[in-house]
Amino acid sequence: MPENSDLIDVDSLLTESELELRRTVRAFVDAEIKPHIAGWYENAEFPTRIIPRLAELGLLGMHLTGYGCPGRSAVEYGIAALELEAGDSGLRTFVSVQGSLAMTAIHRHGSEEQKQEWLPRMAAGTAIGCFGLTEPTAGSDPGSMTTFARRDGEDWVINGTKRWIGLASIADIAVIWAMTDDGIRGFLVPTGTPGFTATVIPQKLSMRASIQCEIELAEVRLPGSAMLPKAKGLRGPFECLNEARYGIIWGVMGAARDSYLAALDYSLERLQFGRPLAGYQLTQEKLVNMAIEINKGTLLALQLGRLKDAGSLQPHQISIGKLNNCREAITIARDARAMLGGNGITLDYSPLRHANNLESVRTYEGTDEVHTLVIGNHITGIPAFR
């Protein structure tokens, strides 16, 4: 972390290869994202031209092995997510949807033929994927999905609606989860298939430099080979969601750090009543509280990353990280915005943009309430979802 935010020498816990990856991704964000992100956000533009660079840096499916995937560690993936989200949550979300959701679904649950067909191209950024689970009336309760896939001879025919699906309008392949007579199954749907329509959701107040869509599936006919053979029931999509949630734990600390540093720089330069804002006790208290939570959240992310690399990370631990770090990051971004006064509502400064984005990040891949109940179930042994 930058010197003014790493108060407890978290960097000493990282290997040289991890630090080198961080330097590389941070330099990319500083040079190619931050100078342009205000315009992309204001114009609601996702910059597709950065996709080849993300692939070149080995950030697409980076935690997966084989099939042209980078095969990096969980901690390295987390570090990259943090640095990307210091640029913008929407750009980190692209890497998450492509790698943690769509590519992981194929890598973990697909046939050998499906893996060979899609993963090398997705790792190279020449094919884009999306992950269709959430529906207009089935967000936190995906088991109530109404999208249905029926057998018709050797084929499958899918009907239904998905909503809040990242990248769907630019995707080449969609991982669609649908109810069948045999329970929930996953299907690979080429987006050019007749009956598949992706419509961008307009007028968002959050994640404006990102793409979210509604998908309509009207008599979408697929061959039997389109089904993901190793995924049955909700465990399949939940395993992918946990990969995405893990990346969020790291990523939101990037948004928090960038917000904190913006407030710190501003408070050192802004004069009020003849002295810098940073010289006032109330300002220093706010900066201290931000820095402490960033250090705590980064340590939490690192601990969970080490557990993941050791193969021992548990779902309730992912929920702890997602709940805590999102909650703290959005508080930091809001407090940083307040420290900027009226200037803080402009896109000249990052905190309000981060705060708006974090409203989405806090909601997707499990709300605060859902993760609270996951942790509560682990503590008490009593499931309170119903």
From TrEMBL:
The keyword Transit peptide applies. It catalyses: glutaryl-CoA + oxidized [electron-transfer flavoprotein] + 2 H(+) = (2E)-butenoyl-CoA + reduced [electron-transfer flavoprotein] + CO2. GO terms for biological process: fatty acid beta-oxidation using acyl-CoA dehydrogenase; fatty-acyl-CoA biosynthetic process. Transmembrane segments: none annotated. One of its GO terms (molecular function) is flavin adenine dinucleotide binding. This is glutaryl-CoA dehydrogenase (ETF). Belongs to the acyl-CoA dehydrogenase family. The lineage of its organism: Bacteria, Bacillati, Actinomycetota, Actinomycetes, Micrococcales. It comes from Lacisediminihabitans profunda. Residues 232-379 form the Acyl-CoA dehydrogenase/oxidase C-terminal domain.
